[in-house]
Amino acid sequence: MKTLALAASVSLLAVTAANAQDWRAAAQQDVEALHQEIQQNHPALVTGGDEAGFAQRLASGYAEARDRAGRVRDADDYAFTMRGFARSLEDTNITFDPNWQTPPLWDGQLWSQMTTAWRDGQYVVTWVDPAARNMPSVGATLISCGDLSAEEFARQRLDHWEGNLDQPGDREQTAPYLFWDRGNPFIGGLPGSCRFANNGRGRGRDYTLIGTFAPEPSRRAAWASAVYTPQVPLGVESFNGGTWIHLHDLTQGSASQAFLAQIDQQLATIQGGNVVIDLRGARAGSAALGYSLANRLWGVDYRVSQQRIEGQIVYRVSPDNRQYFVDTLGRMQGDPVFAANYPGAVRQMQDLIAQFDAAAASGAQTFTQQITPPIPAIEAAAVEGEEAAAPAEVATPTSAMRGNVVVLVDGGCRNACLDVVDMLATLPNVRIAGSPTGADSIHFEQTRVALPSGHGYLNYGHKTWFGRTRASNVGHTPASGLAYTGNPTDEAAVRAWVGSLFGG
Prior knowledge:
The chain has helices at residues 20-41, 51-69, 75-88, 150-158, 168-174, 216-226, 254-265, 267-271, 287-298, 300-306, 319-334, 336-341, 343-362, 375-384, 416-424, 491-501; strands spanning 95-98, 110-111, 114-119, 122-128, 141-145, 148-149, 180-181, 193-197, 205-208, 212-213, 234-239, 242-247, 275-278, 312-316, 366-370, 405-409, 430-434, 443-450, 456-466. The chain is an alpha+beta fold.
């Protein structure tokens, strides 16, 4: 999921040149388009499961968005109107992206000179501007703001705007924004007074908070005090006699190729000892890089033999959804290398389009395909020209990985990272550790639609996976004994704890 651009910056100068009337008209137009696109094409309305709940959220979200659109004055108002509508549907794969540069995670405009983190079920102060006076101390816990409890205050400012507070991973990732102004006009300004309990004890004390400009270096430092921030996106290092693999970025490119080359050079050593696969903060890229790593460590035949992919894929029949696959087929056939090397994939796509046509001709709203393993494996292998064999073609494969593996995750592990964890969790010598990840919906494979104003894009999943190991909008939660409850930004403490999982 991408972060919304909010701060006034050079990248927004051209965008903000439009007047309030223009932005209001753009919001009204795009709200209607988003509603129509979801109404006509989203599978949740017809494929079974939560049709009534989704339809209700769509209706209420649409009504709220229409009201907000009528109050839009500028780019921020527009962006938050669209973002709030998308997130109100409570499908993690429905997102809105503005048509301007995505800022860093620590982006903001004003703040109350401090930052909080979500720790042990409370909002805890982790950073205070050194120049600020009469502020709560680092370690203080939030009790209330005005007449709102800490929970009510957080829901007002964060829920459905920055994340879903019913998901632990989103609690972790959104906590720094609690006392930041990120340009949202629909939640009110920064609070004037809040009560904090220093040292987490007692009835607490009221503090008068002052909203000030938030300089980028301070925001960056504040964010890093609350949420783990990877310093080495990709890399390999020795750890406790084994190997620590940094896999914080799943983006395909020259860096990922160099990373895999590094793995290849040390492969025998890595396979012979214990391994940490560190996926904290891995929110960008493709699952293919994770599959490529696993294919090397365990061997592709063994990895595929362990993966149990079951269930059914249900497609919603609509002209737009059919066109997605027609366009995909066109890209396949337009690439002579792909068409020559993967004729089966071309035939599968042709068969799928034929099923759309047959279903439409019969008046059906859906059709179903049984999952045939190993679909994700084939997709991942294709990236490197590897050929993933079906389990039936493999005679008693054995694992090349002889040590134990800890997969380290946090709330920043989302999007493709979840697919990687799903796959790694099928391997017998793997334990998932750390803190709860982000989540994703069972409505997947995104369609990306340019909204009519030209100011943004709608993304949504156009088919539904029934029978997935994880339920919809559920992530990975480490089991008891594998859950890290300390400070996630204290890397020395994290490493000491991880070492203890291996008995070190």
